[in-house]
Amino acid sequence: MHNVRHPQWMRHRTRALVLATLSGCVLASPLWAEELMTPQTPWQTHGSGRLRTNVRWHQAMGYHFTPIVEGRITALGGYFNGTKHVKLFETSTGTLLASAIVTDDNIWSYTDISPVSVHVGQRYTVAVYLEGTGGSLRSALTTRFPMFAGPIRIEGSTHTSTRFHPEAKPRSTLRTKMYGQADILFVPSRTTNQSPLAQAGIDQTLLSGMRVYLDGRASIDPDHDPLTYIWRQLEGPPIKLPRPAAARVSFNAPIVQTNTSLRFQLTVSDWAASAHNEVTVTVQPDTTPPHIEVLDPHNGQAFMLSIPHPHSKTEGGAP
Fold this sequence. Notes:
Blueprint: E1 3-5, E2 19-22, E3 25-28, H1 42-46, E4 50-55, E5 59-67, E6 71-90, E7 96-118, E8 124-129, E9 135-139, E10 147-149, E11 152-161, E12 178-179, E13 182-188, E14 204-207, E15 211-215, E16 228-235, E17 248-252, E18 260-269, E19 274-284, E20 291-295, E21 302-306
Parallel strand pairs: 14-19
Antiparallel strand pairs: 1-7, 2-3, 4-9, 5-8, 5-11, 6-7, 6-8, 6-13, 9-12, 10-11, 15-17, 16-18, 18-19, 20-21
């Protein structure tokens, strides 16, 4: 094993790491096919927030993560100060999969390990054991966890006290800070990625005030990668979508006096690429006169009474 510090593959590639905020998650898009085998350092590459260093914590700190593609973890490391143990666990069982001694002085450092295969959908934990010195954290994160970090989904930060139990395993999940800044080196096993196909549904025509449903659940990913969704309005009177990052959203059509078009764009993304599709909703004025239910006082039966439209006229032309 040897200590790895700032190798060439850790540097940002501008075209490969364009960040987009999707569904409370940060997504790197697009990653070019020839770069899919590039080793990934999820938190170093995608981390954000206000940095604090040299904190004296008796804690094991790091993050839980889930691979989006099959791959191997070939190094453990992080951003801290001093010589620390960094450990990799299978989260649900607490099984120790690998550990490494990493020497750091508040820069990103990694130590090679015997490769550990990790699997899609399985949750893992990486943590640094600080032993009272040299801790770091990021607060005021740009985006709350969970977040996509290339082919890794970071579920949240985690920590636990080691003051009385030095081998304790962190199990908590925190959404707004990254404690400890442990990290992994992940090598995806897949060499290509097929872009998803966005399906925003068919165009719709309906009346003012009716409920509108935008449904992107027919979107697919050829590699069966999980998808994130974002709806954005391109045209028409402004509509506030209550959950723009859901696959299916709804809202009440605005009240209009003439035919009005509302155009929306759906963006679906896997861990490496995005696709777009549009749908148009045509809203027509509702000219049906309103009705009220009236109760006949003589027989107690109810009947509907039409209320003339305020702009309508009688047969003689009088208002």
